[in-house]
Every structure is written in structure tokens, then in C-alpha cells.
Amino acid sequence: MQRTLGTCYYPEHWPETIWAEDAARMVAAGLTWVRIGEFAWSRLEPQPGVLQFDWLDRAIEVLGKAGLKVVLGTPTATPPRWMVTRHPDMFAIDAEGRVRGFGSRRHYCFSHPGYLEESKRITALFAERYGQNPYVAAWQTDNEYGCHDTILSYSDAARGAFQTWLQDQFHGDIAALNAAWGNVFWSMEYNAFDEVELPNLTVTEANPAHVLAFRRFSSDQVVAFNRVQVEIIRAHSKAPISHNYMGRITDFDHYKVGDDLEIATWDSYPLGFLEDRVGADAVHQRAYARQGDPDFQAFHHDLYRAVGRGRWWVMEQQPGPVNWAPYNPSPLPGMVRLWSWEAFAHGAEAVCYFRWRQAPFAQEQLHAGLLRPDSADAPAIEEARQVAAELAEAGTVEPAQAPVALLFDYDADWAWSTQPHGQGLSYFGLVFDVYRSLRRQGLSVDILRSETRDFSGYKLVLAPGLMHMPDELKQALATADAKVVYGPRSAARDHDFNIPTPLPPALPGLDVTVSRLESLRPDMPIAVAGGGQVTGYLEELEGSADVLMQTDAGVPIVMATGAQIYCGAWLDEAGFDALLQKVAGPAELTLRNLPEGVRIRQTATEEFWFNYGASTVETEAGSLPAAGVWRRLLD
Amino acid sequence: MQRTLGTCYYPEHWPETIWAEDAARMVAAGLTWVRIGEFAWSRLEPQPGVLQFDWLDRAIEVLGKAGLKVVLGTPTATPPRWMVTRHPDMFAIDAEGRVRGFGSRRHYCFSHPGYLEESKRITALFAERYGQNPYVAAWQTDNEYGCHDTILSYSDAARGAFQTWLQDQFHGDIAALNAAWGNVFWSMEYNAFDEVELPNLTVTEANPAHVLAFRRFSSDQVVAFNRVQVEIIRAHSKAPISHNYMGRITDFDHYKVGDDLEIATWDSYPLGFLEDRVGADAVHQRAYARQGDPDFQAFHHDLYRAVGRGRWWVMEQQPGPVNWAPYNPSPLPGMVRLWSWEAFAHGAEAVCYFRWRQAPFAQEQLHAGLLRPDSADAPAIEEARQVAAELAEAGTVEPAQAPVALLFDYDADWAWSTQPHGQGLSYFGLVFDVYRSLRRQGLSVDILRSETRDFSGYKLVLAPGLMHMPDELKQALATADAKVVYGPRSAARDHDFNIPTPLPPALPGLDVTVSRLESLRPDMPIAVAGGGQVTGYLEELEGSADVLMQTDAGVPIVMATGAQIYCGAWLDEAGFDALLQKVAGPAELTLRNLPEGVRIRQTATEEFWFNYGASTVETEAGSLPAAGVWRRLLD
Amino acid sequence: MQRTLGTCYYPEHWPETIWAEDAARMVAAGLTWVRIGEFAWSRLEPQPGVLQFDWLDRAIEVLGKAGLKVVLGTPTATPPRWMVTRHPDMFAIDAEGRVRGFGSRRHYCFSHPGYLEESKRITALFAERYGQNPYVAAWQTDNEYGCHDTILSYSDAARGAFQTWLQDQFHGDIAALNAAWGNVFWSMEYNAFDEVELPNLTVTEANPAHVLAFRRFSSDQVVAFNRVQVEIIRAHSKAPISHNYMGRITDFDHYKVGDDLEIATWDSYPLGFLEDRVGADAVHQRAYARQGDPDFQAFHHDLYRAVGRGRWWVMEQQPGPVNWAPYNPSPLPGMVRLWSWEAFAHGAEAVCYFRWRQAPFAQEQLHAGLLRPDSADAPAIEEARQVAAELAEAGTVEPAQAPVALLFDYDADWAWSTQPHGQGLSYFGLVFDVYRSLRRQGLSVDILRSETRDFSGYKLVLAPGLMHMPDELKQALATADAKVVYGPRSAARDHDFNIPTPLPPALPGLDVTVSRLESLRPDMPIAVAGGGQVTGYLEELEGSADVLMQTDAGVPIVMATGAQIYCGAWLDEAGFDALLQKVAGPAELTLRNLPEGVRIRQTATEEFWFNYGASTVETEAGSLPAAGVWRRLLD
């Protein structure tokens, strides 16, 4: 596999006279890809039906002729102002009932039929005109579905579509819905599907089954919206189709959207994410303020490798300070190179820097680019050039399966957010804590979706917090060759958010039952025998399985029979590390003791070392400077 | 008086085939009472006018025949979905103007005339059908008025009813309202009652007189709503009528609702309340996370003894982790027994555990019951059985007046919340701080309403923060045999929230005037001579009364003439303890120095000791384990 | 210039029988001025068109005859209830879309044409009736424009007026607007002015150019609203016209409103401001809880001296605890005197205490007055009497230009708030930090508006954070005799919020370019060589100018060529002090090392010393007690 670089460019932002020079500088910097078009609707159709695609024709021509491959984005994330005159009710409505209006971007409700038609129309115009264009080498649908909290809409259109969706799910049988949701509980029973409201603005919490159904519906609406574009493009073009997912967004099922795409891409803003989304404490945020979290990018790399079934890119790579986080520091020198190489180490086909030139106007004017607003080089372009040169040296690479698999499931995330039980508990947080522990100890990880049934080749599979586990998944894991770690909360609910009987987790071949569970204040951790702590969440376990770990007071927290291991607690770093150490030996995994901030990733032929720390660290393999990267060929 | 146990049961949640076994297990566990019906409307009237009461007939029959006494609840807290189609404007509107819609419970506005009629209709159906049923031994109206912040509604119906209420209060004289409220202040004068808006969404704070009137009106609406049900039930049944008040809700006058009932009951969730409502600091929350606050339940027990004029129950007793607090830990072993015995020590007739079996569906699926969702015993049922056995031993008990009375007044709470003057200051907080001090020093307390005029039998009466004191109350206290402690802020306002002249408190026989007052930052406490601190609130006192306590700088904070004592400061623990120690001797009260977490309560014949601590403590009477209970007969 | 005292009085609040006695007591206390009328509309026009001005005639007569000069306020801040029946859409709408209704004050939208007419009508009634009244010696328009966040309104009226305003700004050319705002960015281009919405409730942040334009429009609406009243009054009266600005409000351009007035006045609440608006940390708030911030009042004094072009008053001076801050402590004894003298030291013509008698009713019943609600003297009146006596001794005073000028600009404040880039960063905060540093080192300061072009007489001029600097201003500063300190962020944007090319600051005669910038977490300060720290915000500077200050790591933060100095960092106290120390010598300024809490202010003939500390401090000039004031004649 070739590893390539690229950038995001907006020809409509700049005088046509400088396009050619921009293109030449991109090529000179070693870039292969240029993404364009995704916000340009108002320039392509300035008034309804009045099309002006000629400038885009010319831009593609200029870029392509310079030797660049174009990724062409459909502009549906930014419908022009005239569109909202035509469809005044096309906006999403937030949970408080407020219209999310025109004036920025993503101002549409996924359930609005009129806007869906407009989306088809503009996509068809793109596909028909550029489907055979020799320079258009890839496509992007829309832009960052879900960014700015735009998946859940409480509009009339969404309510109607939700009712139809439910009718479909329950085959028109409202009694089945009432039974599945337990609506008898507070006399919440419906007599007809058109009585089902959206689960916002209820007096106290809505039925979790109702909320979860709405989350599933909302995700399905995104899948459907995206699929319509994909089908139109595919009818006219052989180029691969992608979407650029935004980091730390779990409001729709990325796998299901990905099923319709050839390539998954994601937008990686390590510093912005650390301030805004990682959920780390202030000490950690301070320590990595100029580097980003040492595991957050890697997690997404591994996730989108799964979403893209092996084919994935970083479509937007932070090249300097961003504009949108609470605080927006500059990265340490070398970090742009490190982030780029880390993506390749995890299997990326391409890394594209966002954006080519910093815009002097509008919302993102303080978002760095490879060039400054005055067209001078910004610091990142030098690091990009270095990566390009190093890539030329490094040659191609073959993907390899990791020894460890971690299941990550969007439905489980919605279930946890519907019912966290304790303040601050989230599925993403739990899975990421487990992922961190694997990485701290030097392991390379594959992320798998919950539909996976074949686990061959893995020594260890982890399924923490997977609240709903179909029987087929339970069977597949029970019969896998790998060691399997479940819990906490795995298999805790049935499909419709009810507690099943027999009580969870009810795993084949593992006699463990969660007889009661509790959430804990952050200031009341429970000491684990041998080190580490239970924090936040704890289950009472009973059954005949062996006790693998217990609290200082002798309460079992991890129980196992053979390769099947159930953990009934959310553990701190030392706790999860200890759990891994217990299972590593039997799983024939070798753990490493890495210095703080150092991470390793192996491909089939290479071992990469990355230092996210702000200063040089001593490792078993020598002295690794801040922002340092080692690439070593495996024997 | 007999002491009994019970539970809350939802036959509509379970197959009819297991009702008999459930009933038998309840009886076997020593339970007397079973409450049913209060959320079952959609099963009793699945469509408007279509009645299906036969299953409830059978449920009562099964439970009654098994030997249980039924408490039957009217289902008006959960009107079915078809109801909101029939009355689309029946919802409460919150202070931000948002409709509080269908999908959970308590989705009605107390001022909506249409829903009031529906409430009458369903209550009449219940009363007519079961008024003479031999197994229905008590009634409950609705469920937890005020839970989920449901008293204040800013709907059109509420505005109209408020205008009518004001017209009545001011005998149709709008000039009288303008004068009473001081509406001249910012040209807020009205020309007619239908010009008076609800006091929400004003540009800056509304007139406090306006706000207080709205709070009083809102409380009166609850009283009226409840009374309608009581009158209908009483016309058909001789069984006593109750309502289950929710802890730490002061948005309506519980005494006035209680005046229409035979029995006051309340719902006691010690762990949920500690996390959510007590208002304690994190250290306290941590220390009592598995036990609950040592005084919070006792305060409510004493309060509802007053509300029920002696007759009161715990209708819902937490039996394990709940689902609704920020964190939901399990109670220490023994706490369910302790909470039960504490209720009896304060005079409860019955303690009912909520709920019989944990529901596997809907909003409260993580709320523990006496049984697990799979019908196995949960830990609490064993403690319930132990209490049942101990009750059989202990026999009946006679109530006794406590030596100390503490006035608690809902109107004062509304006045403080209308005008706290300093962030975080509340009437409940002040009264509870005083109550804690009394309890820390071993005293049993009666809570009295502000309409009390006969204080005979009390050695000490306290009226902290009672912002409006009618002359008759002032006179009654001035002439009581007891020592009387007033302030801070007692008698600070007239009926319509004006500062009276002569300046407050203007108490007969006590020459003390509050010449100025201030609120204090939490970080600027003022040291009290001899120990303790003023925190949050301080009055400047002048007058000829004796200075009983003063600050280190010599500023008087407590002044007294004979038995009349005025305290012009909010004190910390040491401060209030010191104040009590000064008045205890003259009041002929003996104070005790109890260990942290230990509390005492005396009945006419018994002295109870409770250890809320998480470990064994040494007391003057021996070693008391965590969650320990002593019941000792007095000489 | 004569220095005088006064008070704010509400004859409509009190029985007419006590007016004469009140007036006599005012005169006896040494007061000259009495402000009346500004909230009295409902008493002057109790019903539409029904006028009752006779009582106001009599009140003016009584006060005037007693020897007081009347300041008469137009009552437009408090339209009566009948007004909102007549104009149901006259309310402002908040950014969340909620109507800001009747029931307090300032319940009008500046853009509502109907209310503007009503405002004209009532002003004309005032002007015609009292324009020639011998006792009406000054006027006030409305009351505290902008208090309670009332400048920005998102009403239909505001939207329409904004569209018209934009049409005017861009001469009817929508393409010019699109170009100026960079609306191409996210396809935000408009085809017509009536497509431009208000910039609230967008999905993510609105275009900063859009927001800034709305802020400018909103300010212009206030200027226009005020001008209408001024023109009417001026047509009938020769008395000077004022408006009482509220402290720490920057939502409209006070200079532009001031251009239409003879006198600027402001309302000074040192303790309330410290709790609510200064933005100090808790340690500082604790230290000055009873004194107020040592620089906040002085800053406003200097600001309103500029706004009033030399003529300014304190119209409302806090005389004891207020009612509206989170905490409302009493001032230290002596502070009312100190605050009064400090105003005079900065050039005030008058200081008026708010209010004469504490009102026992309505919203401000816990706001102290010179009298208590029972008409007894409150503590402040004694301090007022002392000031009156001291003023009689001190005689008149001549104004003098300060040696240092600090530019303060409302447009820059809106630009920063539109794009702070880092959490908590604000223009006011930056300018105030610089002001504090000047004052800590003993300097007297003039505040200048950004339209200033003549800087003669100043030794040092500072223009921190002035985001837009027209070329004429750059030229004027480059050629001034003074040392000039710019930055951070000075000249960072053009008029329409775009980053200019060449990159900022592009100052004539100073080769410094901000090549990149970052905002910093509060926990990641950067050490400055020689002491002090960069906090919150840092620019990367390049260019050939001399490096005046740098970080410990050698990164330049202050660069200079001759008298032109650019600072690219937000510094802490030690940092700004060090910067001043570097420029003081060349600027021929003598700095002093004042003790904590001590401040100095010089007039032409006097030097004042003030001790804001809570205890006595030793100074070079002797021992200065808490709340102490020295007035010394200069040689």
C-alpha cells in the first residue's frame, strides 16, 4: 500500500489567478491529494436552479493538470440561504425546542423530505458532471455528519419519520411496542403509532427504551441520507467514495454509514480534541496541551480502519492552532510530523492537512493552515515536506492483524448515554480506558464491530460495556480461540432495553450473575487486592466461576472459567493494567512497560515508537526526544 | 399503637399467574400493607370511557385474601396518552416557557380545569367501586405532588387562575394590590387584575411580593386539587386517606394538604437524598454515601408527624440502590433495618418498602426492590424480615411530646427563595442546621406549624428564619412558658413582603432591632467569641436587650430579655451548638455529647440509639456497630 | 470647578406630607442635587393619555424651594403595564428566543418604532412642562441603558432594523456585504438584505463579521433612541442633559451616546461590582469584599471623564449593602467617604448617593439608603455629611491632563467578545489589567477614545487589544511625541473583521509581524525572562525591530523601534509591571512602589492617597489607615 499526503483547498475562496501557483506549491511540498467543493453550493447554484459550475470545472482542471488527485465533496452540509426560504421547516430542532437556523453550517434535519430531494439533486449534478472526470479520483459525501450535535432533531419531520420507523420496527403492532418498552410502567401506553412523541421535554426522564429507539432511528436517518448520495455517485463514477467522520462523535453508527462507502476518513484535531472531547482531567490536559492525548488519535485510527474495512484516511489533519477549542495552543515542533506518521503506522492510505491556506475571513479565520493568510509558509508545511520525503524513503506497507481485538459498538454508546446510572459514566469512556491500558503496555489493537462473528487470529478479545449482546455474538465469543474479557455491563440489556432473565450477563460457559450493581461517587474508590481501584461503577457478582480479582475486602470483581472472563467493575489505570497482566500470560501476549507518553504500533513489517511527551524520555531502545518518531523494520 | 410493615406493588406489571405467590411471600416476610393502583390508569381506562377494572378487582381480591391490607392510590399522577389528545393544553409550562409534555409522569398543570374534571371522574370511579371493599384499608391521592418540580406552572390556565386568586385575595381592588406590593416602585402598577402576568421571564427579578403571591397561589392550587379527590373518596369510604409526600419538597404547603387527610406519608430515599437534595458538602456526602444523612430522615419523620397530626407513615422506603441520584451506591448492610426502626422511633405507624420486585423495564429498572427482577430475594427483604420479627417482640408504643419544638413554615421557605439575599441561603437550610444542632446534642424534637398558638409542655421553642410572623404568633410565643429563640430573619417582612415599621423583629418584650443586614461570602466567616463562626448572613442588632453572644470584635449577635432570645446570625455547627448550650440550662434541658454519626430518639417509653457511621463507635452506653440500632425501655 | 453632593429621591414612594422634611434633611446634610422622576411613568400617566403631573409639579416645588437643584429623569426605562397592551411586540427577545416581558424594568426593544414614538411623547411632555422650571437644573435620559443585558434584542423589529442598517452600510449592495464578510466560506452568501437573519440560534458559531455588525447596529440603536430624547429636551431647556451609565457595561458605545449629552454620569456600586463584574479571583474578592476593587471605580471615573468630555458625575453612589450581588456585605466604615473623595480626585462635579431612603417594598428593599426604611439615619449619611464639610473646606479645583493615556474602545470590546479565541479572554479584562499596572505604580491616567488623533501632552500612550485601528490612528500614534505601546491583538482585524494583509499589526515605523498566535490554558503560563509570566494569550512575533522582552526560552514578546513598542502577550501583574518599568524611563515617567491596596490620583493642584486595604498600611508618606484618604496640595 502506497502512503500519500494531501490537503483541503477552497478555490472559491481565492482569486482564480493564484490557483495554479497554489497547485504547484502543493505538488512541490509532496502532496498527492486535494479535497475541494464541499462548502461551495452558493457559488455553484447562487440562485435556485441557476447553475455556475464553470469555475469548478476550471479549478479541477488546474489542480489535476498540476499533478494532483482531486477528492470532490458534495456540498450538502452547507445549503445556501435561498434553500431555507424554499424549505422554511428544513431546520433541525434542538432538545429544548429551538430552531437551529441559518448562518453557519449543518442547518438541516436529516428527516426533512424536501431537503433530501435537494441533496439528491445537487449530488446528481456533481455526479453527472464529474463522474468521468479523470482528475476526480475520490469522492466525499457531505461533511462531518454529526458535528455540532446535529444528529438528533426534534422537528415535526423527525417525529413523523420516527413514527413511521417505529411502525416498521414493530410491524404495525402498537401493543408490541408497548410490551417491548414496558409502557405500562407509568401509564405510558399508546393506542396508535402517531401518538408516540419524541422523547424530549418530558417532565422527568423519558422511558429509556423510548430514548434508545429514537437514537437508533436518528442513526438510521443518517445512513439513509448518506446512502442516497452514494447511490447517485456510484451510478456515474468508479472513483471510491468516502465520508470524513469527526472525532469523538458517536451519535450515529459509523459502521453502517461505512458499509456504503469504499473508504472511511476522519478529521483529526489532537489539540482541539484534548481540550474539548477527550474527557481527561486538568493535569493530563496540561501535560499534553501541545501534543494531544497519546491514545485518542490511535483509537480513531483503529476505529476507522474497521469502519473502512481496511481502507481509511485522515482527511483533515490539524496543522497548527485551531480556533474552536476552549484554549487553542500551538503544537510542539514535530507534532505535525508525529501525527502524520502515527496515522500511517495504523494503516492510513493518506493524510490530508486541513487546510491549505489559513482563511482571513469568517468562522475559522484563526484556524492554521499549511500557508499563512498572506501565503507565506506556515510552520506545518515544513513538517509536511519532511514526512513526504520520509514516505518516499519508506516505500509501501502491508497491513497486519493485531493480536488483540476490542469491540466498539455505537448502539452500546447510546444505551449508556440513555442510562449512565452514575454521573460521568459513558461507554466511550470505558472502552477508551481499556484501550489506553492495552496501549500503555505496548499492544497493537484492532477495533471490531459487534457484528463480528469470526475472531480467529486474535489472542485476546475484549467486549467491555457492550450492553446488548445477541446470542450469536455470545456463542461466537464463547467458542473463539482467544481469551475473552467481558464487562462491566456487557449483555446487561435485551434489544429493547429491558433487564433480561436469567439476569445478566448470562454468558455460555461462564457461571457469573450480576445480582446487584451500584454507581460510586468519584471520591469513594474501592481498593483492589494487589493494587488499583474500582472507580465509578461496581457490580455484585455471584456464581461458581473462579475469582480472578477481588477487592481488599474480598469482594469478587473479576471471575473466570477457562478463557471466559467477566469483569464487574470500572477500574482505574492500575486496575485495568493488573487485569491485563493476569490475562496476558494465558493469552500468550507479551506486555511492555513503556515510559509515560510513549506508544508503540506495529504493522506487518515495522515497529513505530512515538513520544507524546514534552521532553526526551529514556526507553529500553534508547533516548526518544519530545515529539520523536522511530520507525524500525521488524526482523 | 401497632407498628407495621408493607410494600408497593404493581400487579399490572406482572402476569396474573404470579400474584398469589407474590402475596404469599409478602405475608411470609411479615408485611401487613400493600399499596397498589397509583400508576395504572392506562390499564383501567385504555381508551377514553372504556373501563377495564376487572383485573384490579381480582388483584385486590388476591392480595386481600392472602391477608394483606390494600392501600389504593388514585392514578392521577399518570394520565394516559389519550388524555393529552383530549386536553392538549393540560401540561404545565416551565419558567422558560417550555411545555412539559407526555412521556414520563406528572404531566399536568394543577390549574387546568379540564384535567381537574378528569381527576374527579377517575377518583369517583375508584371510590364508587372500592369504597366499601373490605380489603381496601386506606387510600392514597395521586403520587408525590411536586416531584420533578411540578408545582409551579406558567401556563395560560395558571395565569388565569392566578388572576382570579388575586382578585379574591384583594377583594377586587387592584389599587389595594398595587399598594400592598409597592408596584409604584418601577411603574409596575396595574389597572386591572387581568393585567397581572406570571412572574417569569421578566427582564430582571420580578417584584418579590409578586413572586411570593404566585408561590402561595400555586400551593393553594395543590390543596384544592387534592381536596377534590378527598371529598369524593370520603363520600364512599370510611378508610383513612393519605398522600405520599416526597422528601425535601417545599413548593406547596404540606400542612394544608394534610389538613384534608387522615394520614400523612412520605417517601424516604436516604441515599438518593444525600446525593441530590440534602445540600451537604462533599466530605459529608462521602462519609455517609452508604448510610444517608444522619438527620435528614428524622427531620422528615418529625415534619410529617406534624403534617399528619400524629398519624404518619413512610410510604416508600429505599431498599437498596436507587436509579435517579447522580451516584447510586448500595446501602451498608443493616441500613434498611436502621431506617425502618428510626421511622418507628419517631412514631411511624407503618413503613412500606418501595418496591416489591425490581422492574426490568422502563424508567426505574435500576431501582432496587425487595425482590430482584428474576424474583429471587434481594438483600433488603432479609432486613425487612428481621424488622418484622423485632416488631413482633416490641409490642405497641405510645406517642409522647418532645421537650423541644421547632417551627417549620412553607410560606417562609418561599419568602427566602424569593429573596435569599446571599447565594445559597435557604430557609430549609437554616432550619435544618438548627435541627441538626438539636439532634447532635441528643434532643428529641417536635416540628410545629406556624399556626400553632399553644406551646405548653415545651421547654424550648425555636423559630429561626420565620420571615412573616403574625401578631398572634408573636404574642403566643412571648407568653409561652418555654424559652424562645428567634432569628435570623424572623418577622422580617409583613404579609405582603414589605419591611415593616417599626423595623424587625419588633417582638413583644424584647427590645432588639435589626438596623442593617448583610450577606457574606463563604470565605469570609466572622469569629464568634468563645468559638464558632458567623457564616453567610449577619444582622446588625441594636436595642436594650442583654447581649448573650457576640463576635470576637464585640458585635452582638444574640440578644435576650428573659425567655425571649433573638439570634441575628447564621452560625456554623459550633456556633449553633454554643447558642443551644447557653439556652439549655435555663430551659432545663440536658444536652448530650454524642459521637459523630450517632443519634438518639425517645418515645414515651423507649430510647433509641442509631449509628449512621460506617464503623463501630464507642458511646457512653457501650460500643455501637455501623448501622447499629439500640432500643431501650426508659425507666 | 465646584464639587457637590446629591441624592436620588422618589417622591412618588412617600406620603406628600414628608417631602418637605426630607428636603430639609437633604439640605442639612450638605446635599446640592436631587434626582427624581425616572421611574414614575405609571403615576404621571396612569392610563393612556390620562396625565397626572400635578404631584410632580409640587414635588419639584418643595425640593427646589428647600434649596435643592433637581435632576429630572425621563421615565422611559419603565413603561407602564398599559403600554405593553398597546404595543404587545415592544419587548426585547433574548438570544434563546424568549420574550423579555413586563414585571421589572427595561422591558423594551430599542428597535421598536411604536415605543420610540411613546418615548418621544413622554419626553416632550416632560420637556414642555419643566423645560423652563427654575429648579430643574439638569436632565437625565432614561436610566442605565444596557443594565440587565438589554442592548441586544433578537426581535422582529430588531431584525428589520438591522437589515435596513446593513442596506445603508453597504449602500444597497448585497455583493459588497458578502465580500466584506467572507460569506463564501460556508455558502453563507445572501441574495438580498432581507435574507440576513440575526446571528442567534445558529447551529455553530455565526460568522464573526455578522456578529460584529449586529453589535455595531445594536449600539447605534441606543444612540438613536437617546438622541431623540436629547433633541426634544434641548428644544425646551437650557439645563445640561446627562445619562447615568451603569458600570462594566460595554454593549453600546458610551462615547457616541455621550456626544449628544453635556454631562456623563455613572452609577458606582463598588461592592456589588466586585462580586458580580470585576472578574477578580476569590482571593481578591475576599480581600476587598467590604471595600471594592481598588481600581474599578477609578477606571470608570477616568472613562466617563472622556465620555463627558471633561464633565462627569457619579449619579448613583452605593451607600451601604446592595441587594443584587451574589453576596451583599456592608462596607467598611469610611468607605462611603473614600469612594466619594476618589470621584472628586478624578474630576467629578457631583456625587449623588443612591438612594435617599431605603424602600421597604419591591425589588430593591434590601438596598441601603442614606436613611433606613423607618427614616432614621443610616450609617452612610454621617459619612456624606463629613464629605460635605470637607468639600466646603477644600474649595474648587482645576482639571489637569494626566501624563499617561490609555485608549479604550467599545468596538474592540465587541470584537473580542465575538472572538475571544481563549476562554475568559476579554478586551475589558486586558485593558483593565494594563490600567491596574499603571495605577499600582502610582500613575494618573487619562482614558481616550479611539477617534483621538491629537496625543500632545502625553508621555506614554497605550493601545492594548485595539483590534481595529484605522490608518489615520496608526499615523497619529506613529507621529506622536509619546512612547506608544500596542498589542496584543492591536490592529489584528480590518473594519469588517478580516485578517488584513500584510499581516497585523502593520504599524508604520515598526517592523513587527504576528506570524501565528495561540491561546493558553490558565495552568500553562510561560515564564518571562527577568520575572513575570505570559498568561492566556501569546503571539509569535517576527521582524527586524528590537526585542525588548522575551520569554525564558528566548522567544520575543515585546519588540520596539524607537518610541513604537509592540507587546505580543497578555502578561500577568509582574509582567505588565516590568513592561511599564522598561518604558517609564524613556518616557520620563516616575513610577512609585505603592503598598498593596494603596492608590494615588493627582489633579492639577492636589495629590490624593486612598487606602482600599482593610487595615493600616505604612507608606513613604506615613501611616494610612483602612479606608483612609489623604488630600495634599501639590507644591
Automatic annotation (TrEMBL), chains A, B, C:
Superkingdom of source: Bacteria
Statement: the UniProt record of this protein carries the keyword Calcium: no
Enzyme class: hydrolase
Residues that, per the record, bind substrate: 105, 143, 324
Species of the source: Tritonibacter litoralis
Regions that span the bilayer: none
Family in the record: Belongs to the glycosyl hydrolase 42 family.
One of the GO BP terms on file: carbohydrate metabolic process
Gene Ontology molecular-function annotations: beta-galactosidase activity; metal ion binding
InterPro entries: Beta_galactosidase_Trimer, Class_I_gatase-like, GH, Glyco_hydro_42, Glyco_hydro_42_N
Domain Glycoside hydrolase family 42 N-terminal residue range list: 8-393
Domain Beta-galactosidase trimerisation: 402-589
Catalytic activities: Hydrolysis of terminal non-reducing beta-D-galactose residues in beta-D-galactosides
Binding site for Zn(2+): 109
GO cellular component: beta-galactosidase complex
EC number: 3.2.1.23
Keyword annotations: Glycosidase, Hydrolase, Metal-binding, Zinc
Active-site residues from the entry: 144 (proton donor), 316 (nucleophile)
Signal peptide per UniProt: none
Protein name: Beta-galactosidase
